[in-house]
Design goal:
single chain, 866 residues, alpha+beta, Neutral Protease, domain 2, 23% strand, globular
Length: 866
Amino acid sequence: MNKNIFLALLFIAGLGACKVMENTAVNDAKSTASIDSVQTETLVATDSVTEIIHSDLVTYRGSNERLHDLIHTKLEVKFDWANQQLIGLATLQLKPYFYKQDELILDAKGFDIKSVSLIEGVNKRTLNYDYDGWQMTIDLNRDYTSDEQFFIEIDYVAKPTSLPQQGSAAIESSQGLYFINPLANEKEKPQQIWTQGETEANSAWFPTIDSPNEKTTQELFITVDNKYTTLSNGNLVYSLMNDDETRTDYWKLDQPHAPYLAMMAVGEFAKVEDSWEVPGGEEIEVNYYLEDNYSDYADDIFGHTPEMLTYFSQLLNYPYPWPKYSQVIVRDFVSGAMENTTASVFMEDLLVTDKELLDFQWDDIIAHELFHHWFGNLVTCESWSNLPLNEAFATYGEYLWYEYKYGEEEADYHQWKSRQSYFEEAKEKQVDLIRFTYEDKEDMFDSHSYDKGSLVLHMLREYVGGKAFFKALELYLKRNEFGTAEIHDLRKAFEEVSGEDLNWFFNQWFLASGHPKLQISHNQDNGLLTIEVWQTQDLGKTPVFNLPVTIGIWVNEEKNWEYPVEINANYEKFEFEIKDTVQLVLFDTEQQLLAEVRHEKTIDELIFQYYNGGKVLARYNALEKLGEVAFDNPDNHHVLSEVFLSALNDPFWGLREVAADFFNEYEGEHLKDVEEGLINLAQNDKKPQVRASAIASLVSIDADKHKLIVQKALNDPSYTVKGAAILGFSLSNDPNKSRILNAYKDSLNTHIVLALADYYVTDKQYEHNQWFLDRLNEAKTEDLFYLIQYYGLYISEAPESVTSAAIPVLADVAKNNENEYIRLAAFQSLNLLPEGDSLKAVREEIKAVEKSEELLNFYQQIEGKN
């Protein structure tokens, strides 16, 4: 099998439509695509304003009309675990926003309403209301003016599981309130309750005006069995023991925030205390909530949080504005994480040990949710059309943290992954960043809002300069604090600071779709260097871009010139009088432009670019292109092996990894030097990913020759390296191979599990079926996805005794797992089995209970191919 076990078996048809966002940040972004020279192709904008703005079928998605101002929300809640219901009493303080009102409309999804009352001092007056299961329209009995406040009390039961399920690429469900293992019948899973409010799902557990342009202060009284810990927004004011052995926790947030940011979590969490000192001010609580058996690793997982708080506060010249910061890890979360005000929630993938953190740290997602506390929580997008004001900034917060903590090269490499994510999505759709014509608000949660948005912010920083960039952000935050904003508020802040009209930048990058595709050529003749630039994107759907950029020119081993130029036409030509031979022309020396760039260069120019290009992305691109040249013509291996031998010692680990990968199955010149270089990396490199790649290449060259190196790596502290070593050792002819590798059968780490799965599949060791079944039962969401695919291959040629045990397990996953892409993987694995009436009946049962039309379409496609 291919050494990259996370990519080896992505055999699910059409999987590109089933994305795990982000952030997320779970997948290792190894790609063979060039950074500067992605293949040019015509992209079709499927949702551009210019194309559909006049259609009668499109609704303009502006900000929600504000009829009332929700001033304060008080909730008193307890739970019916068996029926997965919340028993609640809500008291809402409101006033008309401007015009007088005699009725109140509240969002309240799937409730049983017991009573609605107007609170008048110590008295209550019952109010009439209409309720359609989604919204309540309450008759206030008289007109109220904008200077009159009133209090509404609603006694209700929330039944979130009764609601139809919807979701997005980033947030899989809109149920709002979730009971995990409510009947305690899953032995390996704790009982928990948690909420997820974005976009407008909190109104599935409390009545509110569920709109991003609403802001409310909040009190929450949570009554639970005394064994449970609770968490909510703001500070814990008190805990009160009740006569029935329950406890009521009182949480209070005095600063206003959007209703979708309200949260609560209930579970048997360990609370690990930390703290942070506001620059020049008081100390605030910083706490980490997680399952007790992971509490010893809380600081390993979240320990950079206080440093992040200090860095972001100083960078923005705006101290963290909230009274505390907590982070909690829950089971079966429907997203990667959520930035609820003062209490971010994270998926269970963050439940890791210190050893697992040797391979992968979670700084990016932690920084993302924390940066939201300025961009999204303090200043909230006034409509979902303006979502990039939340998500683009949070994604750029990842870059800023990496730049500060790990250096510019690590930040650029991290951002390159965002670039590739956006380009991949752009093959299917190109839409405005700020878009007012989406079909569903959940459509806004895509790589445009996250990845493209962050890249656009980086270009804006490069254009105005870092000092002006952060001064403008400070102005934007202070001007709109505890309120809402739209894209023009951001533009005006930048214009006020920079003194420049920036409509051109915001119009082409935020309010139009697509990105530039550039074809570049250069030629030197008789002392004249000519550089030509064509914009080749479909100009019927994408604008001609105005692109301020720098061009670097190297002569005599040095960068002699760096010219700032501006491209604002579909064809530009630049001429420079240079007598000496030009060794390199590098378009966009800062490597900051969001564009697909095709610039043909000779092998000598690419080699020179690797050694002299400066920016890590320029060097990376050179190696990638040289690797393509070698792949297309193996005769070039002897020319390029010296470059890649040198790259084995590159100061940046990502380029060492590229170099190690280059020598996979290598048979060219300098073989002895290559093997020595790979052995050095396998044994001594600080980065586990590099050690693992070096081991894989050594094995591909000669598995038995390097058996001892690989066997030694079985004891490496990194699970990534152990997994590579297991894969490598499984290819050797060692007579003790089975005994040595089976010693790792009890490990639950994904790298070990998937490596063993690969071994058992390849060697057709059908005696390990129970091992597969056990691991499927224990696997976390992301791991389960890959393991199911291995299991499908494992059972595809297995004896009947194995398949008979496998079918009901996979059928259960296909029918009942909460994640669509996992259900799809299970169905596909079943489809690999020999056709029979019983299997056909199982597939029909799966389709009968499947509610996703998209999945049903996939199932038809899969069955049609067989």
